[in-house]
Structures
1.
Amino acid sequence: MRKFFASLLCLALLLGCFGVVSLAADTDPYRVVATPYEDGIGLHWYTKADVECTVKIDGYSHTSTGEAFQGNYAHGLALVDLAPGPHTYEVGGVKGTFNANPGKGKAFNFIVTGDVQASDKAGFDYSAAVHEAAWERFPDAAFSVILGDHTNDSNNEQWDQFFASFAPVLSKAALVPVSGNHDGNLKWNWFRSMFTLKEPNNPLSNMTGVYYSFDYGDAHIAVLNTNDMYPMSVAQQNWFLNDMKQSDAKWKLVFMHRAPYSAGNDANLPDNLIMRRVLIPLFDKVGVDLVMYGHDHQYVRTKAMYADTPVENMLWPAIDGFVPPTGTTYILPGAAANKRYAMHPNMLPNVKNAMAKHEEPGKPLFTNISIDGGTLTYQAYIYDPATKAATAYDSLTLTKTSFAGADPDFKPLPTDVFLTLPQQLWSFLRNVFMVVFGDYLFTLLPGMIGG
């Protein structure tokens, strides 16, 4: 009898996270994902029971306790100042790899896709196949990006299925997740409870998603939360200005969810029009090179834009020493979802004039971006789910010979929600007025009547 109980005890100790035999299934980790966290990594996973778990990074053990969320327990672990290059992790029986920032001067590439926005296993598997095709073509990618709407309804069942369907690709490298309106808008704290991210100390802004940034190679990447809207809070705007003005990276990239340039179902809604008036000037002010976003399930690539105008159409003063801006390219890379939007015929003139390529190709897409010194190369591919073939669809090369460093005279702006509340109210009223009169009454409505 003693041997029998001794055998049971040994079995319990072999079950990964610490728990008793009856809780074995409840202690198994799931929803395991790695994300960028400063120069290191954030690991996140769940257990069904309240247990302490052991994580191994490059063979070294770390422990984590869970925090209750929606009937389960979320675990997070952040490690910074890691050596450049690849690392391994193991959470229970789940193994994966990730790449820490290789440092300046190192070439790299990464994968970007649009919305998943699935509700069932078939939908999640459909989008996961798009990502798998991207990884087959670019097996050396440093990380991947999903531009929001990882689920359709942001509930336990759908997040479980997202992580189950995407597990093979999530084990390959870190995921850069973007807060979509289907991930967290009016679903408080869901998005931030799925990932370990370096979020600012701004609880009110982070309830609907997370905004954060990180360096990788010669790029500084900011991920914005466009659920924090009507318009985007001044606290987040100021955080973005502080973040970009203090960066000396050669390339400045932005990932977000809502679409500044598109003619999808939601392009003419008030929240989107307000966001355009808030964010486009911010991107101009800090010299962002590339903005990628989701939300509208179609394909858009703009010309280089400045002040909501193609740079090629602008006249610059002939002043010695004056360097005209190169502009910002905006890209909506289709969707990984089996759901697409037709192009709305009544779009703002500035949006229509911005388009370099704009259509709905009828199939999902994936894209790849490589950065090597002063060259950024963008490639888009159509994926055919029936044949599992990927076909080149669009490409762009951006080159730079001069790079703006950090601004030594910039004084950081306040990022507290309460301190910036007066500015927030004024910004809201001003932009609502401009949208009602500038966008609707004098631009969109006459076009609808005339059409």
Note: The longest helix spans residues 421-450.
2.
Amino acid sequence: MAESLRAEFGRLLDVRDVRRVRRVAGDAWTVSVVLAAPSGDLHVADLTVDDAGGMSPALDGDDVIGAVRRSDAAAEGAGEPDAMAGFGAELGAEEDVGLDLLEDLEQPVEVRVAAALGRGDAASLQEARELLPRMLADHDQRGGTLLTMAVLEVKLGELGLARGYLEAAAREFADRFDLNALEKAAALALALDGPDAFTGSAVHTLLEQSRARLTPIAAIFDTRSFRELGATLRDRLAQAVTSRTLAPGESLVVEGDPSESVFVVKSGLVGVWLEKPSGGSWLVRCCFPGWLLGESSVLAAVDPRCTATLRAERVSEVWVCPAPVMRELMAADPGFAQRIAETKQLHRIDSFFSMHETMGQLDVLVRDDILSCLQRIESFEGEVTLSAAGEVPKVACLVARGGIALFEEGKTAPLAVVEADSFYGVRDAIHQMAPAVTAIALPGSTIAFFEGARLQRLCERSAENVIAVLERLG
């Protein structure tokens, strides 16, 4: 990026902040470009760079002049007298010192909650109830906080609230495949509801699903990707594949490092950690036995890089398949190559979902259900009508590249264009409503189609918050 700017602007512009952005079609980066002035950096623009190196929007001299003018206008505004300046100075410094002292003495909320729960009287429990929701902002501790809220409501006699918090906690634990914590939540649910009501409940279902998914894989050829390989290709892979055992917390690969192998989880649990735009990383899903990972190593044309950090969440064993051997198999078996490519696209959409402002609110199991509704991914060379005005759409769309133009009847100019990384038709497909516009895929577009009937059935068996999230998409 810096080299490209130098060719156009010399040393006038420079790159400062770079943030990874998860997109349907692959990774992209948001890059802050500044004018390196003697008085300090002047922000010019935030550009997006896709995985092929394409940059948008294009910068020109007007953008640089605009940055200078904005800086001058801000400097002139700062020089004007502030009518409110000095207001309240007569109050003196003693009150400020007192407020600062109180803030410094205030203990962290988790310490205050622990103290209130330890006291155990009615007033203290009420204090803890008011403080606990503040701790939900900590993504890593969210499940434990919800479980504590459930235990608290049991003590206060609010069993309905306790059951709600308990199910939410169980979903958080299931997302992370934290079986120990999930079993604690299940034990509390069993104590509250009794054996008959507990069997078949949401918490019981989550526990059984999690236990089943941890069953080790006996052979790599038992997995979907490798099951249909012929005998000759199986022999070639068997000679090259190796096994690696990971300790809890040990990284298999690190985001951004060269991607050199494909991995298949044999036993244990491997976490997928993504870098946050604001810094740090977070666990977006756990991969159980049978999952294929690291497919970037064989699908990227040049300099493949790891798109996530893979870390063992417990003692785990993985099969390691060297990228050159995988490419040989893919060249010899087009069906195998197609399965690997489909896996990559699913992982891209999953990463996009996990970082999406709305979809990210859903737990992993619900996102898996939505991914299971994926019907096909299709690219269009010319304009193609996806749904006509007045007709109930059979599919919902997620634009990966290009866009979908929406036309009112009799109009030649589009009413709007649904751009990349945006949804269209989700609510219409779920509620069987006929839109008043015709949707047309633009030339060069790639679109993921989700089967409307399956989305509808998903909503019928889902909680209200899941339906609300899907209704907001697009």
Note: The radius of gyration is 27 Å.
